[in-house]
């Protein structure tokens, strides 16, 4: 089965609306109307899903692991700590999406991982310095195509490591390409991988930005790039983001040119991240699952109930299907591309969408919507976590190069005065 591509898009428009006539009115909010304000009090919410993972920069001190939220609608970056590590000088963060693990290294090049399913970290994954006999630090790493890729500081040797899927411990390792840049050593910096093309993107502290294609084993440097000395990571929106640690600045990076565009500068009271990791994998195989998170914040003045409504669907690559009609053996079953398209479910198809374990106690899936079961106070934030899985039996060749889109609308309603009993769509959840 060829690889699939999943793209996730999210609507994060903010709004507040007042429902009512001449008798009783309720404050509500929705994510697809112009923003309004009300003197008596308002219900307003923010929702977003573009996120990364990061390690806070603490040289010689114990590290902390963060989930980082990027809101390009308002050009802001926020974050939430998910793990206090007992290890020091953490770096080389990389996200194993299939097994829901975040791998990272300490200064002796010991590898550990944080388990996103159980919410526990510092699990021992093996010692690369002892395994390889190399006394150097791992400063840049990425995860993709079933492996952890890294480059030791002051080398240009690319290593590939695989882990046991059950234990998370090092299984195999190999020197994938020695002197891939012709003998030029690099100080990092960071690397990120786009797995559709098998390309590693790198920003180094030695004043260079380069790409490396693992299939073609081809190294390309961009002398006019300005994305230098950045921590790199792909967000859930498919954008390559860069963070300049000591300057507290965030950029969008053009992966094909290495040109950066500033969109957020936090100042000295912000966080410095020593490394970033991607939040998603861009190729989707039958059986793979994708973790989708929505962070919703009550930015109004009233306690509120929240719900999320999703619209989903497939967008098929018709040109690809036509070009490879014979190779994909469709002519044995279908007489034309039109006949095939009529037989394909472009709404849900071979996809199942369920609550993550971490959201099962606080959210309820009912009548096609996800309801938060508690009140959210002004300033409070909650996270809805969903698992989106591509099935195996029904994921036929017609879904190759197709995109699965999830669009979300967040809604809120005041929790006072029995509003949920009066407004359709809320009453099944409240006693």
Short structural description:
The chain has 431 residues and is mainly β.
CATH evolutionary superfamily of the largest domain: Kelch-type beta propeller
Distance between the termini: 49 Å
Main-sheet strand order equals 1-2-30-25-28-27
Low-pLDDT runs of 5+ residues are: 1-24, 31-41
Could you say what the CATH topology of the largest domain is called? Neuraminidase
The percent range for strand residues is over 45%
In the CATH classification, which architecture of the largest domain applies? 6 Propeller
Which CATH top level class of the largest domain fits? Mainly Beta
What is the number of E strands? 30
Instruction: State the helicity in percent bands.
Output: under 10%
Domains (count): 2
Which class do the helix and strand fractions yield? mainly beta
3D structure, described in words:
The protein is mainly β. The chain has 2 domains: 17-48 and 291-429; 51-277, 6 Propeller (Neuraminidase), CATH 2.120.10. Helix content is 5%, strand content 46%. Strands 1-2-30-25-28-27 form a 6-stranded antiparallel β-sheet, with no helix packed on it. It is globular and about 70 Å long.
Quick tags:
431 residues; mainly beta; Neuraminidase; 6-stranded antiparallel β-sheet; 4-stranded antiparallel β-sheet; 4 helices; 46% strand; globular
């Amino acid at each position: 089965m060829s690889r699939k591509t999943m793209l996730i898009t999210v609507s994060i428009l903010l709004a507040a609306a007042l429902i009512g006539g001449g008798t009783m009115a309720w404050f509500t909010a929705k994510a697809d109307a112009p923003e309004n304000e009300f003197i008596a009090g308002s219900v307003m919410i923010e929702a977003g899903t573009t996120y990364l993972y990061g390690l806070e920069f603490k040289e010689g001190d114990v590290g902390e692991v963060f989930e980082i939220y990027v809101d390009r609608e308002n050009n802001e970056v926020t974050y939430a700590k998910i793990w206090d590590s007992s290890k020091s000088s953490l770096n080389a963060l990389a996200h194993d999406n299939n097994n829901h693990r975040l791998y990272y290294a300490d200064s002796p090049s010991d590898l550990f991982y944080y388990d996103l399913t159980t919410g526990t970290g510092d699990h021992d994954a093996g010692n690369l310095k002892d395994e390889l006999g190399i006394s150097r630090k791992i400063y840049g790493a990425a995860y993709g195509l079933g492996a952890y890729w890294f480059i030791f500081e002051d080398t240009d040797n690319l290593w590939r490591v695989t882990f046991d899927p059950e234990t998370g411990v090092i299984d195999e390792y190999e020197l994938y390409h020695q002197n891939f840049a012709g003998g030029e050593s690099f100080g990092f910096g960071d690397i990120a991988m786009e797995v559709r093309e098998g390309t590693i993107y790198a920003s180094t502290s030695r004043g260079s930005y380069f790409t490396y294609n693992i299939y073609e084993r081809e190294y390309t440097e961009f002398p006019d790039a300005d994305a230098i000395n950045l921590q790199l990571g792909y967000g859930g929106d498919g954008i390559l983001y860069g963070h300049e640690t000591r300057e507290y600045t965030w950029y969008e990076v053009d992966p094909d040119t290495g040109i950066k565009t500033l969109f957020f500068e936090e100042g000295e009271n912000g966080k410095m991240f020593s490394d970033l990791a991607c939040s998603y994998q861009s190729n989707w195989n039958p059986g793979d699952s994708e973790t989708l998170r929505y962070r919703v914040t009550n930015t109004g003045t009233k306690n509120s109930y929240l719900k999320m409504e999703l619209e989903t669907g497939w967008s098929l690559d018709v040109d690809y299907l036509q070009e490879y009609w014979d190779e994909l053996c469709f002519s044995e079953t279908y007489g034309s591309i039109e006949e095939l398209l009529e037989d394909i479910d472009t709404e849900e198809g071979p996809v199942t969408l369920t609550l993550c374990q971490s959201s099962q106690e606080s959210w309820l899936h009912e009548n096609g919507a996800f309801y938060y079961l508690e009140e959210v106070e002004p300033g409070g934030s909650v996270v809805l976590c969903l698992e989106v899985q591509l099935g195996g039996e029904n994921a036929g060749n017609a879904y190759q190069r197709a995109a699965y889109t999830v669009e979300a609308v967040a809604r809120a309603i005041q929790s006072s005065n029995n509003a949920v009993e009066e407004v359709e769509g809320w009453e099944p959840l409240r006693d």
